[in-house]
Write a structure and sequence with these properties.
Elements lengths: L3 H9 L4 E4 L5 H5 L12 E4 L3 H13 L4 E4 L15 E4 L6 E4 L4 E4 L5 H9 L3 E2 L10 H7 L6 H4 L6 E7 L5 E4 L5 H7 L8 E8 L1 E2 L3 E10 L3 H13 L5 E9 L14 E9 L3 H12 L6 E2 L2 E4 H6 L10 E9 L4 H13 L6 E6 L3 H4 L14 E9 L5 H15 L26 H14 L19
Parallel strand pairs: 2-4, 3-4
Antiparallel strand pairs: 1-2, 5-6, 6-10, 7-11, 8-9, 8-10, 12-14, 12-15, 12-16, 13-14, 13-18, 17-19, 18-19
The structure holds flavin-adenine dinucleotide.
């Protein structure tokens, strides 16, 4: 129990704002992206800067409060909010500075990728963000970071050059190549296990401002033929090209024939981030594979492309995600995907098959904490629905699909796609060697597992 006077004293140590349950803003402040997560923290600190973060960590430690750290609040497992404890909310920390000479961004953790792209694209620079723009920077980056640019630029975490971190004892550390290099290694994929990151330095890359990108829709009955074509197509794809597969019901898009809207489809998410003219032959090959229902590929500003899927993915929906890596899209896998998409009732759900390789797979497995670099595809089953009475049906759809795919999967998983109750899968996000090193660093920096609301890497206990 925290006394009122302790709370009032804590308030005086902050430059930011402290919410308690009685505050009018409290309910809005505890909301996260996934409506399935409905938790009631005791306190929410909206931090104005690193000093507030350090005060919050020390206060929580002193009063034995569980801590949730909130970047964008978009992890579907809802790690960014807790019951009864204290939420360290970084959303007001939106500072960013670009060094256009060194191609660096110095970014605070309250930024979304839309904010980041807005500033970096002003210099025609970018770093790998997700395939939407509304998620937070820190959770995405610390967990890995797959998007439209990872084959060319590496994962977001590969581009993390340094970070300022408030550790479990409430101290501030710099992690870079010269200072605490082990911590920097762990932050490149090890998630929120090591402290609260208050500043991230990113390597930027010349991108755009225009890329050649868009979705190409085919009816689901072309899926098997498309996969045959696609395996050869991506085999010799340059790093500039990413072609993901999205399986879902066709949206009511004006370019899609009316009688196909609502029907099961497969869409190729195409993005060529190099010179437009060099991407054209790749777009042409895809368009000419078969007559598509709609081909929306066009030159488009990179930041606009990043935002283009946002309208489907706003707050207020129930969500459950399940994930595997696959090395091949075998006919058995194709059948399973097709059966489950035929069965799918929610127009909001989909399955995404991310196309990996390129720069991601060229970085040695042990150079960063992030594991499974050689996997060819990351699959994420995204069940999403509007009404609570549909929860059981949607959860079953996602779980059954994951189970059916398991015999074909690599056994690894991506930490940004691990559910709250899938803690036993965390080691497989890293592989044996990286996981052992992550645990050693955790034991050194956070021996009591103070930061445990995450894809948790527990410290060693005296018994191992
Ligand atoms: C609509 C949507 C689309 C997505 N698309 C992609 C995609 O294309 N590619 C991809 O790789 N992922 C994607 N994701 C997953 C995304 O990477 C994760 O949800 C990620 O956690 C979002 O970051 P966040 O800051 O919003 O997370 P939060 O929910 O705020 O936090 C997630 C985890 O990170 C920790 N954390 C947050 N901030 C900090 C910090 N400053 N310091 C230390 N730990 C911190 C939290 O404690 C928590 O454990 C998508 C998610 C959504 C909702």
């Amino acid at each position: 129990m925290v006394s009122q006077s302790a709370i009032e004293d804590f308030r005086t140590q902050l430059r930011g704002v402290l919410f308690v349950r009685e505050d009018a803003e409290y309910n809005m402040a505890r909301e996260v992206w996934n409506r399935l997560v409905d938790r009631h923290p005791r306190l929410i600190v909206r931090c104005a800067g690193p000093a507030d973060v350090a005060s919050a960590v020390r206060f929580a430690r002193e009063h034995q409060l569980e801590v949730a750290v909130r970047g964008g609040g978009h992890h579907f497992a809802g790690h960014a909010v807790c019951d009864d404890g204290l939420v360290i909310d970084l959303s007001p920390m939106k500072g960013i500075r670009i060094d256009p000479i060194k191609h660096r961004a110095y970014a605070q953790p309250g930024l979304t990728w839309a904010d980041f792209d807005h500033e970096t694209q002003a210099w025609a620079l970018a770093c790998t963000g997700p395939i939407v723009s509304m998620t937070g920077l820190p959770g995405f980056t610390l967990g890995g970071g797959i998007g439209w640019l990872h084959r060319k630029c590496g994962l977001a975490c590969d581009n993390l050059l340094s970070a300022d971190v408030v550790t479990a004892d409430g101290n501030l550390l710099r992690a870079d190549a010269d200072n605490n290099p082990d911590l920097l290694w762990a932050l490149r994929g090890g998630g929120g296990n090591y402290g609260v990151v208050t500043l991230m330095e990113y390597q930027l890359h010349p991108i755009g401002p225009q890329v050649l990108a868009g979705l190409v829709y085919f009816p689901l009955d072309q899926f098997a033929a498309l996969v045959d074509f696609y395996r050869a197509y991506i085999a010799d794809a340059p790093d500039e090209l990413i072609a993901c597969l999205f399986l879902r019901r066709a949206p009511p898009h004006p370019a899609i024939p009316e009688d196909s809207q609502g029907q099961p489809v497969v869409a190729v998410g195409f993005c060529y981030c190099g010179a437009i003219a060099e991407g054209e032959p790749w777009a042409k090959r895809l368009r000419e594979f078969r007559e598509p229902l709609a081909c929306l590929i066009r030159p488009i500003p990179y930041a606009e492309w990043q935002r283009s899927l946002d309208p489907r993915w706003g707050n207020g929906f129930y969500n459950d995600w399940r994930s595997h890596y696959l090395n091949d899209l075998t006919p058995d896998c194709v059948d399973i995907f097709a059966q489950f998409i035929e069965r799918l009732r929610s127009p909001w759900s989909d399955v995404k098959i991310f196309h990996l390789g390129g720069a991601v797979s060229r970085i040695p497995e042990e150079a960063t904490a992030f594991g499974n670099r050689k996997a060819r595809f990351a699959v994420v089953v995204q069940a999403r629905w509007e009404h609570s009475e549909d929860t059981a049906e949607n959860l079953a759809w996602a779980c059954d699909l994951l189970k059916s795919l398991t015999p074909f999967a690599t056994g690894g998983v991506y930490s940004n796609f691990i559910g709250a109750e899938e803690g036993d899968r965390v080691p497989s996000a890293y592989g044996t060697v990286n996981y052992q090193r992550l645990r050693e660093i955790k034991t050194r920096l956070d021996p009591t597992n103070f930061f445990r609301l995450n894809a948790n890497i527990p410290p060693f206990t005296p018994n191992g």
